[in-house]
Design brief:
Length: about 350
């Protein structure tokens, strides 16, 4: 049997061995026989007996290890957590707006004079309950008061009218899609980054999409700018095979208010209705991902109040610029309308 001094044993296990061994010796067993049976060094048993006779069984219990003293105290950690979660790095004289481990490392050294490695900073952030995430973008001009006003006053009126006429409510927006944009991740051997072969040519296309509060989505792609003709084509496809009337909520882009679009809507004889919203005061309101639907987002909506076209008491408002981004969620392929 290999002789050991018990250093590699867990503290609670070693504590139980010490107490059991001393009790056997106190019961009349030979110390040499007891320690030999345990497979431990001869000196251990006599140290345990001496401690027992000085302080009793309490002296044989494992004592908590203090370890190396912490470099950062509780108040220090609270300040770091608050700084990372509530402040923009630009506010603390950093050149970049997103936190990195290197920046947190520099922040700690600057504030407390404590130098940590990048790995230690990563462990510290994990210990504080933080993780590296891709942030959601929100326009700082967005007015939450107007957002709530639209949600609580105007949208219910649209919803009530749609229920009365058995119509589906769609939220529409446009977006540009680039060929060189990638967001996904994959699994591979550690240290061996996978390579995806793609074309070096860069190109882009425009996408018009509309989504309901239940996630039903239709979209159309187009090369070139979106003009009145293209938008009318999208409306035509949107209505293709529709079994209910369609209420389409759009922003104040000039294309949506063009004469051609108004004539197209009038020609549907009430099967399609447009509801306009003003987007000057609160950009970032209507996207064709889940963020644009009040019933799905729980609050990520917010241009100034949508005005019902054709209902008394609602003004059309000014003509603002269209929003430039869209959260893309491809739920279904948009069927081409029959000519």
């Amino acid at each position: 049997m290999k002789i050991t001094d018990g250093r590699k044993l867990r503290h609670d296990v070693l504590e139980a061995i010490r107490i059991r061994a001393v009790r056997q010796v106190e019961g009349g067993e030979s110390p040499e026989a007891v320690i030999k049976a345990l497979g431990m060094t001869r000196g251990c048993i006599y140290k345990w007996i001496a401690k027992y006779r000085e302080g009793g069984a309490e002296a044989l219990k494992a004592k908590p290890l203090s370890g190396r003293p912490l470099k950062l105290t509780g108040p220090n950690l609270r300040w770091i957590f608050k700084a990372v979660t509530t402040k923009n790095p630009l506010q603390l004289q950093f050149p970049y707006a997103l936190w990195t481990r290197e920046m947190v490392k520099e922040l700690i050294a600057r504030r407390y004079g404590v130098k940590l490695s990048v790995t230690s900073v990563g462990r510290l952030l994990k210990k504080l309950g933080l993780s590296c995430q891709k942030p959601l973008m929100r326009a700082f001009q967005q007015n939450p008061v107007v957002v709530n006003e639209w949600r609580e006053r105007d949208y219910p009126k649209i919803k009530k009218a749609a229920l009365k006429e058995k119509a589906e409510i769609y939220f529409e927006d446009e977006a540009g899609v680039r060929s060189d944009y990638h967001k996904g991740t994959t699994w591979a051997v550690r240290g061996d980054t996978p390579v995806i072969r793609t074309t070096g040519a860069r190109f882009s296309m425009q996408m018009i999409s509309a989504i309901t509060a239940r996630g039903k989505m239709k979209f159309m792609t187009h090369n070139g700018k979106v003009n009145a003709k293209v938008f009318c084509e999208f409306l035509k496809r949107l209505m293709h095979n529709a079994t209910n009337k369609i209420f389409l909520i759009v922003d104040g882009h000039p294309v949506h208010r063009s004469t051609s679009v108004k004539k197209f809507v009038q020609a549907t004889k009430g099967e399609l209705r447009l509801f306009y919203r003003n987007c000057q005061k609160t950009p970032g309101f209507l996207s064709s991902g889940m963020n644009g639907c009040p019933e799905r987002s729980g609050g990520s909506v917010g241009h100034s109040p949508c005005r019902l076209l054709g209902l008394p008491g609602y003004a059309t408002g000014q003509k603002p610029r269209a929003s430039a981004r869209v959260s893309i969620s491809f739920a279904s392929l948009f069927a081409r309308a029959e000519s």
